[in-house]
User: What shape does this take?
Amino acid sequence: MKRLLVAALLAGTLLSGLTPASADEVSQYIPLPTYRVGAYASSGELWWAGERDYFRYINEVEGGVEGVKLNYEEFETEWSPDRTVEVYERVKAGKDGSPLAFFFTHGTPATYALLEKAAADKIPLIDPAGGKTETVDGTVFPYAFPLLFSYYSQASTGINYIAEKVGGFDKLRGLKIATVYHDSAYGRASQPAVEVLAKKYGFENIQIPVADPGNEQSPQWRQIREQKPDWVFLRTWGVSTVVALKTAQRFGFPADHIIGDVWAGSESDAIPAGTAAIGYSALAPYPGGTDFEIHKRLKAEILDKGKSDLRDQKLFGAVNYNIGLVNAALAVEALRTGYKHFGARPLNGEEGRWAFEHLTIDDKRLEEIGFKGLLQQIKITPTDHEGGGAARIQSWDGEKWVLQTDWIKADHELLNPLIQAGAAAYAKENGITPRTPETETN
Amino acid sequence: MSEINLPAAAEPIDQVGLKVLTIVATLALLVTAPFLASEYWINAIIVPFLILSLAGLGLNLLTGYGGQLSLGAGAFMMVGAYATFSLQLRVPELPLPLALIVAGFIAGAVGLAFGIPSTRIKGFYLIVSTLAAQFFFEWLFLKFPWFYNGNSSATIALSRGLSFFGLDANSPHGRYYLTLGIVALLTLLSFNLIRGQTGRNWMAIRDMDTAAAVIGVPVFRAKLQAFAVSSFILGIAGALWAFAYLGSASVQSFGLTRSYQILFIIIIGGLGTIRGAYLGAGFVSLLPLALDWLFQHLFSGHVDAGLLQNIQKAIFGLLIIWFLIKEPEGLARLLSLRRTQGARRRLFPS
Amino acid sequence: MNMFLETLIGGLLAGTMYSLVAIGFVLIYKASGVFNYAQGSLLLFAALTFVTLTDQGVPALGAIAVTIGLLVLTAITIEKLLLRPLTNRSPMTLFMATLGLSYVVEGVAQGIMGSQVRALNLGIDDLPIFLGDIMISQFDLIAAGVALAIVVVLSLLFNRTRIGIQLRGVADDTRAALSLGIDINRIWQIVWAVAGLVGLVAGLLWGARQGVQFSLSLVVLKALPVLIIGGFTSIPGAIVGGLIVGAGESLAETYIGPYLGGGITPWFAYALALVFLFIRPAGLFGERQIERV
Amino acid sequence: MTASAGPALEVRNVSLSFKGVKAISDLSFQVTRREICALIGPNGAGKSSLLNILNGVYTPDSGEIVFEGEHFRRMQPLEAARRGIGRGFQNNALFSGMSVLDNVIAGLSRHSRVTLVEEAFRLPRALGQERAFRDRALEVLKLFDLEKYAETLVGTLPYGVQKKVEIARAIVAKPRLLLLDEPLAGMNAAEKQEIAAVIARLNRELDLTVVLIEHDIGIVLKLAHHVVVLDYGRKLADGPPETIRDNPDVIAAYLGSENAEAAA
Assistant: This one.
């Protein structure tokens, strides 16, 4: 009996290696490494709901992208980079006749882990508002796309917003700005940018680490109480954001002087913090809310027809849900660009790269796809894999996120040399010859 | 091969023949595997399976044979990986195989240091020492940029790739043979240790450490040896995990969940057996795939994806409990051909 | 000096939050000799159940009653399906079984109730109070009071009720208790249920602090050094251990952290516990094991 | 063979307590070289605790032990083994996950001279030692007629056989002092006679000093040269078997009514 069980499991596994081929029409395969289990599931659940709802909308309402259906499939990773690598290996050859045009990593550490592999396999890694900042330089990193909003841009936009609040960049001189960060590669990713900004504008740069998972932060906030910074830039993630806001309240630091980054600015961060989050602002390359055109379309076609992946429809329009929508839209628009160039058939990795490198979403297109206000204008080029670098600022009013500003751009002139220097160092260390896009064909 | 002709009562000739046949078949399979399996199977299943087996073996020497419970397997893997990275970066003259060995020794020395408390602390109190190692190294390797050469992502990767005395081992096949060779060699060495005096000392301590001391087993030395040897193997496994499987790694690759995973491998596979590590690693690598497949075919579309994932997690937990209750010796015994060996051993007597 | 005092007091109060978690471990360890790794998951399960019920509009008292009922059922199930079949197995086997149990509890709890972060408002305003220059957290003060109340209630339970006295008998000498006809399985069920209740209290307080979500189950990692320092068998030990860990972490992060780049709390508690283990292997209040050969 | 004259073992004013309860109070006695000394007394008299002090499992609160002329405040288990003190336990303390042969070889551990590397690569020295250990262990097993069980997992054997394996393990490294805790417990009469004969032979042929704890007074009086009677951690009587048998204190306190009959 026991042996039978083991044998059955083994047989099942072997069979799972063989994929059933569905014949007639070939769709574009899109694997989604997801985390519905584990410490980060709370952000994940909504994110996948957004992605799936949008893909479903494209498939069922718009009949696919240029007629090509999207075949998306989930793989559980628990946000573990190792398991994401496993998923990547599993899917990189494509499925059911469709090659892989790109791979969503759904997490900065996973992007780091896959950087070299994907470059070797020629598969674009898509990690909007995440990834490795230097990979903005597409001449050294042709297959990495930290779309929208790199970590340097996050720091810069945050400082720009503070400058706006205090009445100009000259007023930054002499201010103290503390960064409370999750002590990980993610948390530290913005440090070089803040350093440069501090030098340029003459504010004092205080860096305070919070060790993972960060569920007790009194020492950190006591330090803040001692050093009395004027503003706090919060670069935490998961539970450490909630605890940071709660502890800030306890130590009497005003929430309206705390600015969170992208990954510290969702409902999952604000709701559990209760009153401590009122007035807290966050960078929003993906604003929350349901007032955007796309939400009306989704509500009518997906939610009201009971096809949504959302378990709790109250969370429709939550920041994490909208992250999913925007990511899905970026993928769809890139594919569309590619299909127009290569023909309406599943793309491979190299074609996928071309597609992303020629992705342009202007205001008119934003209106058409219903993302006006939710997504910034995008123009990706072979030398700029970010393509945006702006965010809106939203504040928590105790119930929901309220948008405070229009798109605030990061200071790319200041940041680009930093990024290029980092990319050049990487190229040297790894023996990569940066490509020269001008001379490339197609 | 003269033994085959002896009228050994224990093993009739046809059984011995069968054994030889099995070994030959296994060897043939191992060598030709890359040509039978797809690249996906080699990269994503077989190579990690081999490395996890090696890590399981390393932990099994300490926990299954030496009776010292450790929740720090990940930490020692981490030390091995970061040491290999540092050596390849800073001592480029050192060829990879030697770097791996030196890294193993560094991991072994670290394991030895964290094993010192075991001479005063017994049983599961020891998990404090091993957990301390786990958290300390997660912090250390992230905190000081020297360990990852200051790159902004805090990850480590071998910039020159894998090579084995001039042979390029970067292709899937290269990685497979590199891993297989190291795993096979370390398994053989471990096997030799286990059936010799060292193994006897470890098992004596596991079965009854006070009695072991009284009859003259050098408990202090043997425990430290167990920590050092186990960490040596774990360190090499960690380096392979980072560079032969993942390609690049960060502290998250060797977090607490990795430590648990290695522990589960040996519980499920069989504590205190060599092949248990392999069986357990196979089980742990394949079970999620099998459950995925099963659930996709049974419930796809009917049940919420989040629920599915959580059910799988619960099933995994149940299997662990079930193994501990029903088969404390794990798959190694379950699949054993010699089931008649008598009553069960009791590991870790209370 | 004020800074030092404030750090110390803040740390001590935060430490009682660790103690609250540790008490649940002590109860189970005393009665069944298990280091129950799943205590963190049970804590998550309890808090999640409560929040899910109140979100559905169930009044708080009703939600507590239902949660307690579920915890009792869980305790009985665990006793029947896990403890009983593993009777007389080594502490390490039991520990590993509870590791598996934590997967089951987490999977079931989050599978049914979802993994969204839930807010939990206990109506405690967490505004700072000042004692002279020294700032004290109101929330932590209340948590400390709750911890104290639990200790008082538990010691009354142990010293004044028949069940409690039987339980102490089981803890002191299982074999003798068995020979006296004490139903040890029932004792286990009761103790696991009580530990679940303590977990509920701890889960609610921690949940109010950081939201009810998966990471609640990680507080188990904070409880272990507390237990090592205080001793696995002593409830006062859990309190004192919590205070030491809380104060130690807080002072270390403030005064040693800057020299090491900060963020040292995850391992500092373990290093502290190791030091204590070397000095007093059984913990401050624990009983020394006598080896019988 | 080292010290010319004097006792092999001397216990001087040893006291031991657990959690404030006295287990042994101010106990002193001597064991002469090459004698079999029996410790008798009711349960809880402190007999096993005393053996545990002698080979370093427990540390006495006060007092000292003199073994072959050297004074010890506290003995370490490994040190005791190295100095030639062998030990059999009351409730079998065999290594249940190992074969009978391996259990006995484990008793030779302190004679091992090969390094980890030699063993991992099976270098000649490691193989040679392994062979020598195996031969020596088989030799001892033969003494107890246990060769047929050599490869059997020890936990699967009957209690009486395990008892023998334990004695074999205790003497395999040729100790000079052998401590045995109830070596005859749980055996039938024939087995008892057999083991008693082996103990007597070891004592005679190997010049082995033996300290044993035994409840079977009949065998004790025949086997032992010297008897020490303990009661509640104190020495009640000390002398050759004949005088012990007639000591009224002993009869009153320990032998009691039914035991007295058994002794007669």
User: Anything to note?
Assistant: The beta strands of chain B are 156-157, 163-164, 167-168, 248-249. Chain B has a mean pLDDT of 84.
